[in-house]
From TrEMBL:
Gene3D superfamilies: AhpD-like. It comes from the Bacteria. Residues 84-145 form the Carboxymuconolactone decarboxylase-like domain. This is Carboxymuconolactone decarboxylase. Pfam families: CMD. GO terms for molecular function: peroxiredoxin activity. It comes from Pseudomonas thivervalensis.
């Protein structure tokens, strides 16, 4: 450079590292979120997951949720890297099926994840529960449609999905939206719906904020999406 001495290798190293990371982020931005890169140029998780062998209590938690010996979801192993985060997260589970049918529960979860653009958690639930919940391929695709399409849903399901949309858009329910729920669900069930929607919005924030990669064999938006996308 005219009028200035060339930079030494030591002086240039920080700039070279920055350029490599910036180029990597640009190169993969169409397919991946921008990850932190190690010195070898390999992408790393935003927060490192807990690796096995796991502490006995954590392994027991994973076995309870996944089945004995089944590797945990990356969401679980990442949260388990923090004792407090894992303890609070597992205490908030609403998957016991006490108040809503499996189909109702999964419609709420799928719609919340679709509206937040959380492909990770949406894909996990479609993979794990859609068949058992009796959701057809068209109905799964319908959870991604925005505005909500007609023709797939029973009256109670329209009320349920409309409530999820209202909570996503305005963080509240109008009197009309609440009364539509009231027509089909009792007080305990309505509280369950509100808590379920809120919990999975939190899960979506975690999965999206950490840019978690899709689980192996999980469903993807591209498999089902057509027309209007729900992530608004």
């Amino acid at each position: 450079m005219i009028g200035r001495r060339p930079l030494s290798i030591d002086e240039a190293q920080p700039w070279l590292s920055f350029i490599v990371i910036a180029l990597a982020c640009y190169r993969f931005s169409s397919d991946y979120s921008c990850y932190i890169f190690d010195s070898g140029g390999y992408a790393m998780a935003r927060i490192k997951a807990l690796n096995g062998p796991y502490p006995a209590d954590v392994r027991a938690d994973f076995d309870k949720r996944m089945g004995v010996g089944v590797p945990p979801l990356v969401l679980f192993s990442t949260l388990a890297s923090s004792d407090r985060a894992w303890r609070k997260f597992k205490g908030g589970s609403l998957l016991d099926g006490a108040l809503l049918t499996l189909r109702q529960r999964e419609l709420v979860i799928d719609r919340v994840c679709a509206r937040t653009g959380c492909e990770y958690e949406w894909g996990v639930h479609v993979m794990a529960f859609a068949q058992a919940a009796g959701l057809s391929k068209e109905e799964i695709a319908g959870t991604l449609e925005y505005p909500l399409g007609s023709g797939h849903w029973k009256e109670e399901e329209v009320a349920l999905l409309t409530a999820v949309d209202a909570l996503h858009d305005r963080a509240t329910l109008s009197d009309e939206e609440f009364l539509a729920l009231r027509k089909h669900f009792d007080d305990d069930q309505i509280l369950e719906i509100l808590m379920l929607a809120g919990f999975y919005r939190t899960v979506s924030y975690i999965a999206n904020g950490l840019a978690l990669p899709l689980e192996k064999n999980a469903a993807s938006f591209s498999e089902y999406r057509k027309g209007g996308a729900a992530g608004h």
